[in-house]
Amino acid sequence: MCTRNKKELTTEYLNSKKIDREIRVESSQLQPLKLLLLGSGECGKSTIFKQIISFQDEQTRKEYTPPSDYVIRNIFLNIVTAMNTFIKVAPSYEIEFSEEENQKIETILRVFDDLETLSQSTFTSIADNIKYLWNTKQVQTIYNHPKRIYQLNDSTEYLMNNIDRFSKPFKPSQNDYLRVRVKTTGIVEADFKIEAVPFKLVDVGGQKNQRRKWIHCFQDISAILFVTSINDYDTVLEEDNSTSRFTDSLELFREMVNSGWFTKSPFVVFFNKVDLFKEKIKRIPLSQHLNDFTGNNYSYEETSQFIKNKFHGTITNQNKIVYHHFTCALDSHAIEVVFNSVQHSLLMNVAEVL
Ligand SMILES: Nc1nc2c(ncn2[C@@H]2O[C@H](COP(=O)(O)OP(=O)(O)O)[C@@H](O)[C@H]2O)c(=O)[nH]1
Ligand SMILES: [Mg+2]
């Protein structure tokens, strides 16, 4: 892998190229620069997609940001589903609830059994019960258990801590929108222009059963944005409880970075969810799950570099252009900085061609 030498380009030169581009775009000679987000399920692809859209002009933002009621409904679904998970998994941890707690649980299960009709008023009617249960010793024990035997969205704590705000009619914030989890199915595309150059951003579903659809968008890729959750070293896949998320993501990266489809496409790897990773290494030693790690389990530098090296070690073509960034996809400023540098190197390539 190598880091590309950045050619010195003056503002004047870039501006003249920009005018050239505008003329070419007008005569439709310029193919869009196609950015493809790849990675396993829940690593943060759609969150990065949302962030990139939020950096664009108002028209693009309007076109590709879902309406508030869609976001609100998914916030409710995320919360009720998470609470249902805690309730269902409790017996496996030998956890019991009191008579009074069981009455509250009943009200939640009734709503869970009829999610189609979940609305602000049904949510409001059970919000206090959910909040109460979330704060019980039992649910906190399940949530904080070092051995998690169930699947849970990473935004659960954030959503639970905001229940009071969601329990009456509210306008979702940008943060709510970034945190809410909606599983992507199929292929989602967004078209926009940056400095008169057309871009196409493509997001896909990451679960194994979604991956066979990917091939439909493998043609003419300008850059792959490969996302992996660095926090996932101790968890298993949602769709396959016998496969570690880390191994799955590493193998997926190996396959993609060495694929004949992408021999000319640079890769930008997002080692994502560093916020969660920094907290997790304090509780769950990396060496317990990645046995060949012999460094300091408490050192963020050592553990994160080890994971990065594992990924980079799978690249067979030593001339492949692979950039890497450690990110928290919720951090708009940080993602904007990364995206600007990706966009800048792509625009330089276009400037060179024109
Ligand atoms: N704490 C934290 N949560 C994240 C981060 N990136 C994504 N998430 C959350 O993880 C969940 C799954 O993200 P999503 O973008 O839907 O993953 P996808 O399946 O790869 O598209 C969502 O609830 C996101 O808000 C991150 O860097 N830190
Ligand atoms: Mg997604």
TrEMBL record:
The record lists GTP as bound by: 42-47, 154-155, 178-184, 203-207, 272-275, 329
* UniProt KW keywords: GTP-binding, Magnesium, Metal-binding, Nucleotide-binding, Transducer
Q: Where does Mg(2+) bind?
A: 46, 184
Pfam hit, one: G-alpha
InterPro entries registered for this protein in UniProt: Gprotein_alpha_su (IPR001019), GproteinA_insert (IPR011025), P-loop_NTPase (IPR027417)
Keyword ATP-binding assigned to the entry: answer is no
Q: Which GO terms describe its molecular function?
A: G protein-coupled receptor binding; G-protein beta/gamma-subunit complex binding; GTP binding; GTPase activity; metal ion binding
Gene Ontology process terms (BP): adenylate cyclase-modulating G protein-coupled receptor signaling pathway
Which cellular component appears as one GO term in the record? heterotrimeric G-protein complex
Q: What is this protein called?
A: G-protein subunit alpha 12
Organism of origin: Dictyostelium purpureum (Slime mold)
Gene that produces this protein: gpaL
